[in-house]
Amino acid sequence: MKLVFATNNLNKLKEVQSILPERIELLSLKDIGCHEDIPENQDTIEGNAIQKADYLKTHYGYDCFADDTGLEVKALNGEPGVFSARYAGPQRNAEDNMNKLLNNLESKDDRSAQFKTVIALILNGEQHTFTGICKGDITTSKSGNKGFGYDPIFKPEGYQQTFAEMDLDLKNEIGHRGKAIKLLIAFLS
After folding, report:
1. Which one of the listed residues 54, 63, 68, 151 is annotated catalytic?
2. pLDDT tens-place string over residues 60-98
3. Is 68 part of the annotated catalytic residue set?
4. pTM
5. Which of 187, 180, 141, 157 is nearest to 15 (CA)?
6. d(CA 170, CA 189)
7. Of 45, 114, 154, 186, whose Cβ has the fewest other Cβ atoms within 10 Å?
8. CATH number for the domain running over 2-188
9. Which segments of the chain are extended strands (E)?
């Protein structure tokens, strides 16, 4: 089975490839000659995932899946949420995003948060969605050099290290994207 994963994020691609069974051949946007920015201008994480998958199916015709992920911080009324990648501006800079989040949380006692990933699959003309959530807390400073995005400041529930301090296998086992991908794999089986 061949599926296109609608992402240009090589870190996400690597993470997902490490989870999928060998019988599923994962194609990247580059593999199918898609070099444009796929629109993601919906007001929900689920909406963005669906929009990206629809765009790919409409313009390229492949069975595909897309994901969107957001970090939702309770004390900030769910921010950055759907704007996680662009939280500090259109440059999509992870350091800027983390700095803004840490700044906004400086006076807050509640640092609870959750990562949420929604995967939208289009297979044989039908759309399906899968959601993975990982609860945890935002740390007061960055720690670790693995992972990407907000990983250096997110500590999952029940663990003493941030996502950026964990090896990929553990992160995939307990993390939001790993949970959503496992639901996708179970559906494809």
Report:
1. 68
2. 999 999 999 999 999 999 999 999 999 999 888 999 999
3. yes
4. 0.90
5. 180
6. 23
7. 186
8. 3.90.950.10
9. 2-5, 25-27, 64-73, 80-81, 112-123, 126-138, 154-156
